[in-house]
């Protein structure tokens, strides 16, 4: 059994939820998120708490119990992240290392000079916003944890850090192990 299932998901003030069939909707001060549930999971709702349980009605063989616990723990985390997202939001910070590498905002669009012959322009998807507090720093913000992480990873892929010099885009605080170059 997943250890997360022993705990309930607390619903703070100002957050409402609605369960319709296999769809859960969480609405809060920052926005609204939806998640489709699998029939392997059932939710027991209280006034200020949600309990995620394994749906043992769909068990066919004994080996299905382990799979049920994994799915229930995963959906517990997804629903908990939805509640955190509509109340606090999520952010990923990136830093750019390299001479001449920089980022700036043009309207809502992120424009980066990364050593290519052309600037890299990235339009934010719905629910995501960019901040550039410094020319070598980018902050990706949003309420959907998965989407924030995916957009930050897509930005990082434009210039993956080079292991010999360390130049490129990395997450803030990420340590890049550099190799020693060829000696002549």
UniProtKB/TrEMBL annotation:
Q: Which InterPro entries match?
A: Ribosomal_uL6-like (IPR000702), Ribosomal_uL6-like_a/b-dom_sf (IPR036789), Ribosomal_uL6_a/b-dom (IPR020040), Ribosomal_uL6_bac-type (IPR019906)
Q: Which UniProt keywords apply?
A: Ribonucleoprotein, Ribosomal protein, RNA-binding, rRNA-binding
Molecular function via GO: rRNA binding; structural constituent of ribosome
Cellular component annotations (GO), alphabetically ordered? cytosolic large ribosomal subunit
Q: Where is the Large ribosomal subunit protein uL6 alpha-beta domain?
A: 11-89, 97-171
Its BP terms in the Gene Ontology are: cytoplasmic translation
Q: Which Pfam families match?
A: Ribosomal_L6
Query: Domain of life here?
Result: Bacteria
HAMAP family in the record: Ribosomal_uL6_B
- Would you identify the family this protein belongs to, as annotated? Belongs to the universal ribosomal protein uL6 family.
Per UniProt, subunit arrangement is: Part of the 50S ribosomal subunit.
Q: What does this protein do?
A: This protein binds to the 23S rRNA, and is important in its secondary structure. It is located near the subunit interface in the base of the L7/L12 stalk, and near the tRNA binding site of the peptidyltransferase center.
What is the protein name given in its UniProt record?
Large ribosomal subunit protein uL6
What gene is it encoded by?
rplF
């Amino acid at each position: 059994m997943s250890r997360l299932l022993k705990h309930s998901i607390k619903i703070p003030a100002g957050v409402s939820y609605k369960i319709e069939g296999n769809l859960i909707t969480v609405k809060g001060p920052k926005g609204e998120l939806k998640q489709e549930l699998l029939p392997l999971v059932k939710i027991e709702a209280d006034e200020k708490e949600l309990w995620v349980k394994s749906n043992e009605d769909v068990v066919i063989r004994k080996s299905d119990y382990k799979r049920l616990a994994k799915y229930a723990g995963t959906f517990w985390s997804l629903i908990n992240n939805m509640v955190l997202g509509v109340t606090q939001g999520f952010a990923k910070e990136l830093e750019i290392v390299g001479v001449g590498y920089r980022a700036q905002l043009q309207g809502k669009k992120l424009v980066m000079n990364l050593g290519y012959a052309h600037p890299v322009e990235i339009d934010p998807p719905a629910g995501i916003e960019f901040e550039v507090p410094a020319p070598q720093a980018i902050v990706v913000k949003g309420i959907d944890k998965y989407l924030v992480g995916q957009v930050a990873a897509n930005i990082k892929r434009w210039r993956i850090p080079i292991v010999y010099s360390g130049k490129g885009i990395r997450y803030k605080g990420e340590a890049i192990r550099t190799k020693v170059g060829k000696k002549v």
